[in-house]
Write a structure and sequence with these properties.
With about 350 residues, the protein is of the alpha+beta class. The protein has helices at about 10-25, 30-35, 45-55, 75-80, 95-110, 120-130, 175-180, 205-215, 225-240, 250-260, 265-275, 305-315, 320-325; strands spanning about 25-30, 60-65, 65-70, 115, 135-140, 150, 150-155, 160-165, 190-195, 290-295.
Length: about 350
C-alpha cells in the first residue's frame, strides 16, 4: 500500500522512503536512504536530509562518534498515515533504535515487496488470513516482546510474508512468542515467515524452533511421527476421561500439540489412526507455512556496545540444539561500513 508524502514537500522517490522509514523504524541513516534510491553516496541524500530537517519533520541525533542518526518525529508525518500517535514519534533507547534500524535494513533489502503500511491495510489482509490482531508486533500488551511492529508484505507471487527481525542479543523467546501468535496462518492459505538476523549462527536454532512450534515436522522433513503418535495417544486418554494419567506437564504438552497439529488433515488422520495405527500417518504433511532465513548486513553494535557485549557473552542458548548450533555457526555478519 502506498502512502503519499509529496504534499509535505518530498519528491515521489523521497515520499516512498519516508513512508517505509516512518512506519517500520522512525529512525534512519543517510546510508539507508542512499541504498533505497540506489546511490552509494552523493548530494541527493544530504539534500533530502536538509529538507526534512528544515521542514521540522526530522530530528538530528548525535553522540556515537562521527555517526549521525535521523528521527522522523513530526506529528504531520504520521498524520499522513492516519496514526498521529504512532509510537515511532517517541524518543527510544539505544537497544530499540538498533532493532528499528535492522528492521529498516530488512525492508530496504526487499524492493519488490508490497508493504502493508497502515493499520487498516494490515487489518484487511490479516482478517482474510484469520489473524486475530491488526498489527503483528513483538512486545505488545499480549506479551510479544519489545513492542516493535514487524514488517508484513505481499511478495511478487502474491504470498503474504510475515517477518521477524531478530535483535540477536538474547535468547529466542521473542521468536517463540511470534511463532505461536502466527501459527494459525497455515490453516488458511500459503504464507511465508522470514527470520532475519545479523548472526547466521542463530538460523539453525530458529529453524528448529519453527518446526517444534509451527509445523511439527522432523529436521529431515515430514511429520515427526513419534511426537504425533504421542499426541494422539494422550488425546485419546484425555477424551476417555482417564485423568489419573495426567499431570500438569502432560496437560500443557497436550494443549501445545493440539495447537501445532490443528486442522482438518490432522483430524482425519486422528480418526484413521485409531483403527489403522501408524500406517495412517505415512505421507502426512504439516502446515503450509514455510520459513525462510535472511542475513542482515549490519549489527549496529555501536549503538550500545557495552550492553551488546554483555548480552552476547552471557546469553544462554534456548535449547541444547541451540548450543550445538552456536558452536557450529558459520561466521559473523559483515562489518558495519559508512
Amino acid at each position: 500500500m502506498t502512502v503519499n508524502f509529496t504534499p509535505l514537500g518530498y519528491t515521489e522517490r523521497e515520499s516512498a522512503f519516508v513512508a517505509i522509514a516512518s512506519v517500520h523504524s522512525g529512525y534512519f541513516l543517510r546510508r539507508q536512504f542512499n541504498t533505497f534510491i540506489g546511490r552509494e553516496c552523493g548530494a541527493l541524500g544530504q539534500q533530502f536530509i536538509d529538507r526534512s530537517v528544515r521542514l521540522g519533520h526530522v530530528k538530528v541525533m548525535t553522540g556515537w562518534g562521527n555517526r549521525v542518526l535521523y528521527h522522523f518525529c513530526a506529528r504531520v508525518v504520521y498524520a499522513q498515515l492516519g496514526e498521529t500517535d504512532n509510537r515511532n514519534r517517541r524518543t527510544h533507547g539505544a537497544d530499540t533504535i538498533r532493532r528499528r534500524l535492522m528492521i529498516l535494513d530488512y525492508v530496504i533489502g526487499r524492493p519488490a515487496e508490497v508493504w502493508l503500511l497502515t493499520d487498516n491495510a494490515r487489518t484487511d489482509a490479516l482478517a482474510r488470513l484469520g489473524e486475530p490482531e491488526a498489527s503483528p508486533v513483538i512486545g505488545n500488551k499480549n506479551g510479544h516482546g519489545s513492542g516493535d511492529r514487524q514488517p508484513v508484505s505481499i511478495n511478487g507471487s502474491g504470498t503474504p510474508t510475515f517477518a521477524f527481525v531478530d535483535a540477536g542479543m538474547s535468547g529466542l523467546s521473542e521468536w517463540e512468542r511470534f511463532l505461536k501468535h502466527h501459527r494459525q496462518l497455515g490453516q488458511t492459505e500459503q504464507v511465508e515467515i522470514v527470520f532475519a538476523s545479523c548472526d547466521p549462527a542463530r538460523f539453525r536454532p530458529a529453524e528448529n524452533m519453527f518446526r517444534r512450534v509451527v509445523t511439527g515436522e522432523a529436521a529431515a522433513g515430514g511429520i515427526e511421527i513419534d511426537r504425533l503418535q504421542d499426541y494422539f495417544r494422550t488425546r485419546r486418554l484425555f477424551e476417555e476421561r482417564r485423568f489419573e494419567d495426567f499431570d500438569q506437564t502432560r496437560i500443557d504438552r497436550l494443549r501445545e500439540d493440539r495447537r501445532v497439529y490443528a486442522g482438518q488433515a490432522f483430524e482425519q488422520a486422528y480418526a484413521r489412526w485409531q483403527t489403522q495405527g501408524e500406517a495412517a500417518l505415512m505421507g502426512l504433511r504439516g502446515t503450509r507455512v514455510r520459513l525462510r532465513t535472511q542475513l542482515l548486513p549490519h549489527s549496529y553494535a555501536w549503538l550500545s556496545p557495552i550492553r551488546f557485549q554483555e548480552r552476547r557473552a552471557y546469553d544462554v542458548p534456548h535449547t541444547s540444539t541451540d548450543k550445538e548450533s552456536s558452536r557450529s555457526g558459520n561466521g559473523q555478519a559483515r562489518q558495519e561500513r559508512y
